Amino acid sequence: MEVSVIGKCQAKIAGADFVGREFGFFNSKVDSKILLSKICFMRSSRCERSRIRLSTKSVQMEPIQSQNVDVGRRSKSLEGVKLYVGLPLDAVSPCNAGNHSRAIAAGLKALKLLGVEGVELPVWWGIVENETMGKYEWSGYLALAEMVRNADLKLHVSFCFHASNQPRIPLPEWISKIGESKPNVYFTDRCRQQYKDCLSLSVDNLPVLNGKTPIQVYREFCESFKSSFSKFFDCTISGISMSLGPDGELRYPSQRRLESHGVGEFQCYDENMLSILKQHAEASRNPLYGLGGPHDAPSYNETPNSNNFFKDLDGSWESHYGDFFLSWYSAELIAHGDRLLSLASSVFRNTKASIHGKVPLMHSWYKTRSHPSELTAGYYNTSNRDGYEAVAEMFARNSSKMILPGMDLSDQPHPQELLSSPESLIAQIKSASRKHGVILSGQNSSNSEAPRNFDRIKKNLEGESLELFTYQRMGAYFFSPEHFPSFAEFVRSVHQLELHSDDLPIDGEEEDTAETPCASPMSEAQMQAA
Length: 530
Known about the structure:
The protein contains 13 helices and 17 strands. The chain has 530 residues and is α/β, with parallel strands linked by helices. GO terms for molecular function: beta-amylase activity.
């Protein structure tokens, strides 16, 4: 899918003339051009006119009513917030060629004119080091970094030592071959099902990868990146995010289905995790505690009260064994995060790039006493214990910044029976970070079907030490008439733009339409999924 930019309308933004853009998306499979929107960057909350035009017929749309975003006076508490936009997850194809290259180039121009600070680029282990350990192919990502620099934008790089399901980007082939003969390199649940989208933290320091440890392999990957992208560190690359687990987050893969609202399951049943647990139990003089995880915990999609462990009254989580297990389980996760953030800080310490790590927002069942969704994910956070203090302290120790997702979520739309509270959980994580001096970066939820609550994002950005917000993610929906005008208003409400004279339109100036067949046609959901 490709996008073209055709200068079509002229509008005013921050008191200056501004060139609007009409975005056309091309799908080689159907050989049609869809002009998705005529976007006029005006102070008005709606465009005067928008349309979708197919090759076979024209469809007229009603004027777009954007979300209610206050674009008046900017709050002083937002002055230091930098805005980034995530690039498509498959910006580089599995064969290391650029996907949507002209679409991205056009999008970068639009973002620069709008006043966005930079973009975030996912860099996949399964693409760069796919065939052989130690053989890196950076060409596709180097080309993208060059595009970002030419657009005069900043670049935040996210290392992805995990797999993606949509679009499907697996772990490197050589890792999968090792996993076939050594299944215990993966996280394993109570039913001995492996999670094959990232390596288990239990093998961090074990030589299971052709004689090397995963920590050694991750370090060599980072060092190769640093060498290959050295010319971009002075002015373009502003930050590095380390993949800390499933979907890049510091957590166990306790939820195997994206939309599951159950409590999840503990992931401590691969041989290496069981061995570590056994040793810890014996050292604590409680050898029977090392036989496995809680026997009375519910399964993935069950509720807290479906078994005894997570019950609010007399649940096993409050027993001596429960405290022993949950303390060990969360400590192993924090130690894993410490190893990876320390690695990144060491490799990139003499560059200008800041180091970031992402924590999850496991907000289901937050209003219960046991907080089961957080416990199975590795956060020993309950009604009488703050599980984020130790996490924030670990980030502070490594001089790393914390990425907090779900900044667009509120309590209201969630079913009451889930006892969910993303607002309370965000407030708690902010409090722990503030206490330990950890700088926060925010992201919106990655679900492409979720409503874009810009008012909620603004509220979460205000009054806190957030220096960066990354909006996820560039794609077909991002530039659609249903979405882009609201995003433009959101950007203007955060930053009062001052356009450079070079960015102002020249009378009679025309821009060429950029058309190119896409490398791999994909759906809107695939471009938006995170």
